[in-house]
Design goal:
Length: 471
């Protein structure tokens, strides 16, 4: 055990943390052979269910199973209560910011955020200026990435407000753990997560256009070749709503309809899993075959609602991230209870100078990057990789931010060599509609390679079940 990293299960002296005591007793009494057998059983079941994701550009094939670790990440009730409050605070402020920048732009006028950082942002959609949305909500589903570092402090690593994914793995991981180890669930009071699809559907129904009492909700997918298609079909099935592609919908008289065998059916709320650029070829990317011609006009007219909103991405852009604490103070009049990771903005000359002098120590990210791509992890990079990235930064410094290399917490994980610590993060999912809510837990992602700090599934990471204890 490396004392340099916060361990979720053991304290710095090697003593077991109280909330892991019951699990540790079970683990000590369970043979490595049984653990290996159960892991193989889980892999077989996930393959059979088709729980895979696509990795673009891989020669070995497009489909890959996300590795599942059978040792859960356990969070005590008191810690979860504090984390949940911080997440609600943050998402409320982000929604207030999005409403403001598309309406009165008070935070820009007050000088708390440089106007050009927002108005010239690639994710800012001028088409949304003045558009009123039900309940003023833009980010109906937010996936907020939380890391624990140092002595155990929690930090927000990033906010995902466009089309955040991963909740299906949270649900399937829980289902798998209950199937493999039912005796563990009789020993622990573990808060349930299985009701997430019901919460999601109810949340979407509450933000239907005005006057609609029994809204029709659909999930809009780019299609079977999308990396998260399993999740799209899974959530549609779990909510009991139609999974549609752009060709299944059409717009008539600024209203959206779905083609059915009984004829056209009006659609009120679209949970879209397609990026802004591809939603409407008449308004955005004219080459898009994925969207619905005329969708933007129906949306602007208030005849259909989209989750998440067009233009929500400006609030999760990494160049806007450093300003979220100021948003919380400005809109809510509160101090942030969850903290950002210290961030250098390379468009600032002093920040750029510092980062260029300390590249081997830092993590540098593209402001529009995602999935672990387009980033430099200084301590894990070669001199040649660092110099190549230096040239990219110098060519366009405004496209990058930098952060310290965090000593991410680790948790015992069942790997080929047995049980060993691996680094992880947590993505809880916050639902915003007429109210804010979430299920207790989230998607724990774990870096399965020894020493790796990159947890993304596209970079070899896996997932764990996340247990929030109820007492």
């Amino acid at each position: 055990m490396n004392a340099d990293f916060y361990n979720e299960m053991y304290d710095a002296d090697g003593n077991l943390r109280a909330h892991y005591e019951g699990f540790a007793d079970w683990l000590a009494a369970t043979s490595p052979e049984r653990l290996a057998s159960k892991r193989a059983e889980a892999d077989t079941a996930f393959h059979r269910l088709g729980i895979t994701f696509a990795v673009y550009g891989e020669k070995s094939g497009t489909e890959r199973l996300i590795p599942f670790d059978i040792i859960p990440r356990i969070i005590p009730a008191t810690e979860w209560t504090a984390l949940q409050a911080g997440l609600w605070q943050r998402v409320k402020a982000l929604n207030a910011f999005l409403h403001d920048i598309y309406h009165d732009q008070e935070i820009l006028a007050a000088g708390h955020i440089p106007a050009e950082q927002v108005l010239n942002n690639a994710q800012f959609r001028r088409e949304m200026i003045g558009v009123d949305l039900p309940a003023g909500i833009y980010a109906h589903i937010a996936g907020v990435d939380i890391v624990r570092a140092g002595a155990g402090e929690s930090y927000v690593l990033e906010d995902n407000l466009r089309v955040p994914s991963g909740v299906s793995y949270m649900l399937e991981d829980r289902k798998m753990m209950m199937r493999l180890f039912p005796e563990l669930f009789s020993r622990h009071m573990i808060a349930p997560v299985q009701h997430y699809p019901d919460m999601l559907l109810e949340n979407l129904r509450t933000v239907a256009p005005r006057g609609v009492s029994d809204p029709t909700v659909v999930v809009l997918t780019p299609g079977a070749y999308n990396s998260a298609y399993f999740e799209h079909s899974f959530l549609a099935q779990q909510m009991g709503v139609e999974l549609v592609e752009g060709r299944d919908l059409f717009v008539k008289e600024q209203a959206v309809f779905m083609r059915t065998t009984q004829g056209p059916q009006r659609v009120d709320v679209i949970y879209r899993r397609i990026d802004d650029d591809f939603l409407d070829p008449l308004a955005f990317n004219k080459e898009s075959m994925l969207g619905v011609p005329g969708l933007l006009g129906a949306y602007q007219a208030g005849n259909v609602n989209l989750a998440n909103a067009i233009g929500a991405g400006v609030a999760d852009d990494k160049s806007i991230y450093p300003y979220v604490p100021e948003m919380i103070r400005f809109y809510l009049g509160e101090e942030p209870t969850l903290h950002n990771v210290p961030t250098w903005m390379l468009r600032k000359p002093d920040d750029l100078k510092y980062v260029l002098a300390h590249l081997p120590e830092l993590v540098v990210k593209e402001v529009h990057g995602a999935g672990g791509y387009g980033m430099l992890v200084g301590p894990a990079s070669t001199k040649a990789e660092i110099e190549d990235f230096r040239a990219r930064i110098l060519a366009a410094p405004e496209k990058y931010i930098a952060q310290p290399t965090l000593a991410l917490s680790n948790c015992p994980t069942f790997v080929e060599s047995g049980v060993a610590p691996r680094h992880l993060d947590l993505r809880p999912f916050v639902l915003s509609g007429k109210s804010v809510g979430m299920v207790p837990g989230g998607l724990t992602r774990v870096a399965l390679r020894e020493g790796s700090l990159v947890v993304n599934s596209s970079q070899g990471g896996g997932t764990k079940d996340t247990w929030v204890l109820e007492n």
